[in-house]
């Protein structure tokens, strides 16, 4: 195969005049330069120009996103320090009870405390809920009356939760 190709090329090349050989050599070289330019150099040059044009805008966007992320971190820390009070605390606790699968008999606002009354509630679920709202809403149990039921782990309870005085 290789020798056949070489013989075919030699037959073609030997059949050309000196002028045709020069034209084919220079034309092939010119075609090679055009192909190299269009495949290798031009796309790289266009890419550099595009990057040169878009890089400053991207750097501005990065600086803006970094500043926004820093502000979000700062505001997140400040938001965690604000605990709901009054009606907002009552609504938050009611929603949280439902999220934890506890059905309150009564949720009532008394002064700055919220009184929660549960019947036949799971004590482990209630303690997990208290721990969650203590961290989430920064409340503490001011008073609790708990009565154990015959079923293991079930209780009737009335608890008053108020905004925590410690940070």
From TrEMBL:
It comes from the Bacteria. One of its GO terms (cellular component) is type II protein secretion system complex. Keywords: Cell inner membrane, Cell membrane, Membrane, Protein transport, Transmembrane, Transmembrane helix, Transport. It is a single-pass membrane protein. GO terms for biological process: protein secretion by the type II secretion system. SUPFAM superfamilies: General secretion pathway protein M, EpsM. Gene3D superfamilies: General secretion pathway protein M, EpsM. The chain crosses the membrane at residues 23-42. It is found in: Cell inner membrane. Pfam families: T2SSM. InterPro entries: T2SS_GspM, T2SS_M_periplasmic_sf. Its main location: membrane. Belongs to the GSP M family. This is General secretion pathway protein M. It comes from Paraburkholderia phenazinium.
């Amino acid at each position: 195969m290789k020798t056949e190709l070489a013989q075919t090329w030699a037959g073609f090349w030997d059949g050309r005049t000196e002028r045709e050989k020069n034209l084919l050599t220079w034309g092939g070289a010119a075609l090679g330069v055009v192909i190299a330019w269009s495949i290798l150099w031009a796309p790289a040059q266009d890419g550099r120009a595009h990057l040169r044009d878009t890089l400053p805008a991207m750097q501005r966007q990065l600086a803006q996103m970094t500043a926004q992320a820093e502000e979000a971190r700062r505001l997140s820390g400040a938001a965690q320090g604000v605990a709901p009070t009054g009606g907002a605390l009552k609504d938050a606790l009611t929603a949280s009870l439902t999220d934890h699968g506890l059905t309150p008999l009564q949720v009532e606002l008394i002064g700055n405390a919220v009184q929660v009354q549960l019947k036949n509630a799971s004590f482990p679920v209630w303690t997990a809920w208290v721990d969650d709202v203590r961290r989430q809403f920064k409340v503490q149990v001011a008073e609790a009356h708990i009565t154990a039921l015959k079923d293991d782990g079930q209780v009737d309870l009335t608890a008053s939760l108020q905004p925590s005085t410690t940070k």
